[in-house]
Write a structure and sequence with these properties.
With 187 residues, this protein is mostly helical. Helix content is 59%, strand content 10%. It has a three-stranded antiparallel beta sheet with strand order 1-2-3. A hairpin with a 5-residue loop joins strand 2 and strand 3. It is elongated, with a radius of gyration of 24 Å. It starts with a helix and ends in an 11-residue tail after the last helix.
């Protein structure tokens, strides 16, 4: 037993540590790259909706969907979006990790804090690309002024606040039915 503990056990511990590090690296790299793809896809979908809305006027006003990084997850967002620059390279072996240390720390802190059930909730929240963006609707007025719906929503009447809802619904239907595509599909 003593011979085994002194001779072979350290080798197994080293192998286990190396395999664990590789597994963690694979998890994080796949997590980050997949999340980046989802965020980029969401932005492309918003761009498509905005293309649909560009020439439409509702009571003289034009509407545009906007998204910006959510402040609570901005360091992780910046890290995720910057990961595109090192495709094919290891995130761990580049200066990428040092550049985005705050994002790494926030990501791992949220994943490892609390009990197993709390960690599962954190993981689901961190895996959902929608949590990394804040969405809003920018209103373009006929006189050239612009405003965000989130800033003026409380100041407007009920009718004025329902128009953006209908705009969102119309843009969603246009996207779902591919109304703006060069070759309309059979919808």
């Amino acid at each position: 037993r003593e011979r085994f503990i002194q001779s072979e056990l350290p080798q197994y511990e080293q192998r286990i540590a190396a395999q664990r590090a590789l597994a963690e690296q694979e998890l994080v790299e796949n997590f980050i790259h997949r999340l980046r793809e989802q965020v980029e896809d969401a932005r492309q979908q918003l761009d498509y909706l905005n293309t649909t809305l560009r020439d439409l006027r509702f009571g003289g006003e034009r509407f545009e969907f906007v998204a910006r990084p959510a402040p609570a997850l901005k360091p992780v967002y910046d890290m995720v979006m910057d990961s595109q620059q090192i495709l094919g390279d290891s995130l761990f072996e580049s200066d990428f990790r040092q550049k985005h240390q705050q994002g790494w720390d926030l990501l791992f802190e949220r994943l490892t804090a609390g009990q197993a059930d709390e960690a599962a909730v954190e993981l689901r929240e961190l895996q959902d690309y929608r949590n990394y963006l804040e969405y809003d609707i920018r209103i373009h007025y006929p006189n050239g002024d612009r405003a965000l719906l989130s800033q003026i929503n409380a100041k407007k009447s009920g009718g004025e606040t329902t128009t953006p809802f209908y705009v969102a619904m119309a843009a969603s239907f246009a996207q779902a039915y591919r109304l703006n595509q060069p070759r309309p599909s059979d919808t």
